[in-house]
Amino acid sequence: MGLKLIIMGTTPFSIMLYKIIEKEQFASVLAFTTGRAFMDKTELEGIPIVAFEELSDSFDMNQCMILNTIGYSQMNDIRKKVFFQIREEGYKLCTFISANANVYTDKIGDGSIIMPGAFVGPYVELGVSDIIYANVSLTHHITIGDFVFIGSGCVVGGNVKIGDNCFVGLNSTIKNKAKIPSYTLIGSGTNILSSITEGKGAVYVGNPARCLADKRSVDVKI
């Protein structure tokens, strides 16, 4: 394995990615990393945890890449902030596409993660730092913005457009030709049958979907 990798994050999602990467022999994981203020231990899964501020002292960062495994908290804004911190340091971001995903597009943004069992069809375009979870089906001719999270089992029809920083919960469906504004939160099991017209930050739940008019996505803890 020629690729040397550092995993940004120490959450259960970070550990799961480490195990998948190890199993698929995608890269050699040298360390986990997080901000010094968030460190409460020195190793994880037998791998050292190194403060982000000290990476260049511990590794030749010209020879390493960083996989950003920060999740969807605060409508993906924390992952967005970390993404730009990594870039500002001049470090290289890793894009992970599982060997067990079926991917038929090369338009995948920097730092995105596509999990095992996902289907990403022809003419699908992913933005930067998107997370496409296991068994998601992105059918065809779909445009997805930056910092989007799509949970396991979701199905997105053709000619759909999804804005930046959206969250699509487990087993949700988005019908073909729908347009989803940025910062939309779609709850688990929600069936979106048409474009969302409430603008940025709406919250939708249910089957068929209904808008929670008294909620804004950035105020919902997910």
Automatic annotation (TrEMBL):
Entry-linked Gene3D superfamilies: Hexapeptide repeat proteins
Superkingdom, natural source: Bacteria
InterPro entries per the UniProt record, alphabetical: Hexapep, Trans_hexapeptide_repeat, Trimer_LpxA-like_sf
One Pfam family linked to the record: Hexapep
Family: Belongs to the transferase hexapeptide repeat family.
Protein name: Acetyltransferase
Organism per entry: Alistipes onderdonkii
